[in-house]
Amino acid sequence: MKKQWYRLDNAALIFPAIIRKNWNNVFRVSVTLKEAVDPEILNQAIAILKPRFPTCFVRLRVGFFWYYLETVGEAPKAREDYAYPLTQMTKKELHSCCVRFLYYENRIAAEFFHSVTDGTGGMTLLQNLTAVYLEQKNGNQIPREGRLVDPKEAPKREETRDCFQDCGAPGAIGRGEETAYHLTGTPEVKGFRHIVTGVLPTEKLLEKAHEAGVTVTAFLAAVLAEAVGEVQARRGGIGKRAKPVKITIPVNLRKTFGMETMRNFTLAVNIGYDPRLGEYTHEEICRLIGHQLAAETIRQKMAGRVTKNVGQQQSIFLRLIPLPVKTFFMRTVYMLSGEKKGCLNLSNMGELRLPEEMAEAIERFEFIIGVQYTYPNNCSVVSFRGKTYINMIRSIEESELERLVFSRLVELGIPVEIESNSPRAAARRFGRG
C-alpha cells in the first residue's frame, strides 16, 4: 500500500515540540476479556484493521517547517505487557510507530502518542480491534453499531481530516486566566507511574450527581477540586496565600459540532473555585463547577477558542520559521503558560455501549491518561456495564490526593472498591509506598 502522510491536527502540534528525554504525552486504553488473549489472533486482527484506520498506524516524521505523520508499511506486532502502563515512548519508537499494542493474560491494551488521536479516537480503535479479534477467534459475526465499523470498507474522509479547520467562529476568544495551584511531591525513581483505580457502581454515581443537580463529570470535578483544595490548605495555602483550584477538563468537540474524526478533536477548559474568597460547601462547589462547565462548553465559545488556536497555526510568520526555531518557541511558550492554569486533568470517556454479542465476552474497559510534564497527578474515567472505573495516576510517592478523593466519595454515599498497581500501596491502603 502506498504511504500517506498527514499534517498534525491543531491539538497535536504541541506534543512533538515538548517531548523530553523522560516524558512525552501518551495515553492508554485497554479491554479485559473473559478468556485469555491469543497473541497470534490478536496480530491478525491488528493487520486486518490497519487499512481501515490509516491515521492511527503512523510514525512521527520531521519536516523542514513542521512535524508530520506518515503511515507505516507493516502493521505493528503486539507484545506482552512488560512493565507499568505508559512507559516512555522513545524518539526511536515514535519514528517507527506512534501506537503500541500490548497483551497480558486476558487484557488487550493500546498506548498512543497524543499527536495521533485523543481518548475517543483511541477507544474507537480498541473497540473495533476487540470486535475483529473476537470474530477471528470465535467465528461469530458482531453487528456494526455505534462506533463499530466494517473493517473492509474504505476510511471516510471526515475520519481522517483535521476538523479544527472547519468549526471556527467569526471572532476569536483568548485564554487569559490566573495561575492555579500546583500539586508537588517526591518524584518516583525510574519514572514509575502509580495507578490507583476506584471501581464504583455507575447507578449510585449518577444518583449522587443528579442530587447535586450536575453531570457526572461536574460532580467528579467538584470532588477532585475539594481534594486539591484540602491538599493546598494542609501545605499552608490558606487565605491570601492560596491560589485558585482549577480542574482541566478536555471537551469532546465531536458532540459539540456534530463531526466525526479519528484524529484529535478536543479542547480543554479550566473550571474550579477560588479559596481566597472564603470556604465552600460541597454543594456550592458542585453548583459552581456545574455552571462553569455548562457556560464554558457552549458551541459558540468553543468555536471562538478554536478560531484563536487555528489562527495562530496559520500565521504566515510562524509557518515560515524553520522547525528547530519553531520547536524552541513552542516549548518556551508551553513551559511559561501551558500547564499553569490548572491543577490536574479529569478526562471522562463516559459510558461505553456495545452490541450484546460483543459485550458478553468482556469484563471491563479502562482509560488511563499520563501525567503532564508539570502535573504529577491526573485522572481519567470510563463506564461499562454498570461500573465506573476512575483511574488516578501519579508520578510522585505521595498518595494523599487519591486518599482524599476516594474517601470523599465514600463519605458521600458511593461505595468504592480500590485496586492498585503497587503492591505496597495496596497493602498499606494508600500508604506512601
Outline:
This protein has 433 residues and is an alpha+beta fold. It is built from 15 helices and 15 strands. A hairpin with a 4-residue loop joins strand 3 and strand 4.
What brief labels describe this structure?
single chain, Chloramphenicol Acetyltransferase, 2 domains, seven-stranded mixed β-sheet
In the predicted model, the low-confidence regions spanning at least 5 consecutive residues are: 425-433
Q: Report strand order across the widest sheet.
A: 10-9-11-13-14-8-15
Question: Biggest sheet: strands, sense, closure?
Answer: 7 strands, mixed
Task: State the distance separating the first and last CA atoms.
Answer: 50 Å
| Average pLDDT number | 92
Could you please describe the fold and organization of this structure?
With 433 residues, the protein is α+β, with helices and mostly antiparallel strands. The chain folds into two domains: 5-138, Chloramphenicol acetyltransferase-like domain (Chloramphenicol Acetyltransferase), CATH 3.30.559.10; 189-427, Chloramphenicol Acetyltransferase, CATH 3.30.559.30. It is built from 15 helices and 15 strands. It has helices at 14-17, 39-49, 91-94, 119-138, 157-160, 202-211, 216-234, 253-257, 282-296, 299-313, 316-320, 323-338, 356-359, 400-411, 423-427, and strands at 5-7, 26-33, 58-62, 67-71, 79-80, 99-104, 107-113, 194-201, 245-252, 266-273, 344-352, 362-369, 377-384, 387-394, 417-420. The strands form three sheets. The chain has a seven-stranded mixed β-sheet with strand order 10-9-11-13-14-8-15. A five-stranded mixed β-sheet has the order 5-6-7-2-12, with helices on one face. A three-stranded antiparallel β-sheet has the order 1-4-3, with no helix packed on it. The radius of gyration is 21 Å and the shape is globular.
